[in-house]
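Running this now, will post back.
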Amino acid sequence: MLLQRLTEYGERIADKLPAEFYREKQIHWVLDIGEDGQEGRLLPRKVSGRQRDQVVSKPVPYVQRSGTKVPPYLLVDTAEFALGIAKADKDGKVTDKAKDEAERRHEAYRELVLRWAAASDEPAAQAAQRFFSAGPMTFALPEGVEAKQVEAKDTVAVMAGTRWLHELDSAQRLWAQEVRARKSRGFGVCLVCGQHGELWESIPEPVKKGAVPTEGGSNEGQLISINAPAQGRDGATQLVNTPVCHQCGGRSMAVLNHLLASDRHRRRFRDDGVLLWWTRHGQDDSALAMFFDDQPDPAEVERLLDSLHTSPTPTAGGGLDTDAFYALSLGLNNARLVVRDWIDIPLPATRRNLAAWYEDHGVWDGWEDRTRYVPLWQMALACGRWLGERYAPKSAPHGLEPELLRSALHQIRPPARALPLLLQRVHADHRIDLPRLALLRLLLNRSPNPQDHLMPQLDKDSTDPAYRWGRLFAVLEAVQHAALPDINTTLRDKFFSAASTAPASTMPRLYRDAGAHLKRLRRDKPAAAHALEARLEEIYEKVCDDLPGHLDDIQQGRFIIGYSHQRAEDRARRQAAKEAKEKTQRKTKTADVPAQANAPQLSAS
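Update: finished.
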């Protein structure tokens, strides 16, 4: 199924894929043989790390090769093949064995080039035939460039005047034939397309090195590979039990590498693995693009949520959306790709899952009077350490981001470990911010117990004791701040962890201690004292007195949400009061203007 979907996508984007069995690679040297093939000049194209914008990179012939007698690529290969430069050992010495191997490889390279040139009638191919049939390789170096600068591992491409020889149609055709000849194992029925055709012995193109993030050493990776009899059914190796034809095998891997190089259809995880996604018909879908952006657009999120809740009109059911969403999550184990997750669902279902994701984690902002949404990577990082100004890089628990992503795409519960990890960091850092609140709301809203589900903003009718204790703590903190605005150690700094884990033994004492602050407020700020005291009494009289001695993780989460909701509500009240006061002042100033304009004017005499 996976290879079928990749092959189908490859048919749709064929014009965006490189030539068959070509791969993007950096070119270090250009061997210019001239338009007549009479002389060669080796031109440097190496750049330093600071000049990455000047790199020469092109799709060039490529196939996976291994063994002691590795064959050459056509026209673009290492300097060992293209120029006959032997590899040096760790001490910088070149052994006779290395010289012999370089000679063998260069001869095989020349034979392949001449075979192509003999079969092509293009002028550039005839120039290559004259140059490479002239005998041992000779070339001139530009002034200031020494031969020792050319390393055996450097990539060398051939040009004839202004033409890259490997880009000629005849070179692309012969290279495809050469790869098939090297990797074929006979004829049979393809498992992917169901057609009878020539089958691969092994997939010729692996995933590019470094394309799949991994903590270990990065290698090229194969999607299908069986090298040992113990790994295959009935002791069969390679693709005997997974027959794949030339077209399906080559195209599916080309598409996989294309997706891995795409910024739009790829999400690399910071610690390990990558997610690729695409759709059957390729329609422009802002909901998917937005979800994989680092910062979701609030307006786009609101439109997505509206589509989730708005009932469709009768005419809306006239057409059926047949598009589908595909997502592939990959890891890497040595040289083997690991398929961690494969999603194949209708595109409308994907939109609903994403809308539910935003609805489940949105946090209401009392200052801005709107619901705010958090990118997925920031939720994962919220379980890491807070350094005072930002989260510590790479401190998020390993693998949490892809687990949250799976929760979003499948609309399932997040991993069970996320809640205790989040609570641990809240207590250790004494910090509750937007990403942590968003993750906490998500964890509670996706609990199987409906009583754990919470509204995005203050719920005054909630009868949950833990939620009410959290609200009460927020009001007690507000009382302290109003009475002692310049205090260094606040109520939250000293008692939040104890109150959120064991409120029955902590909160009554804090409530009694608030009397001293209220007494001071009655003297200095009577209006504030009256409002805060009324709020305290309103919440405290609804709190039960038989709370357990310790709150479990879910109850602690509800305590934190209640605390945050009450703070947001209080901020909204202060903001509304401030705006009302400013509005009144503006009206007063406006009313005074006509009175001043109509006042009698003194004569200059």
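Residues 118 and 224 are 36 Å apart (CA to CA). More later if anyone needs it.
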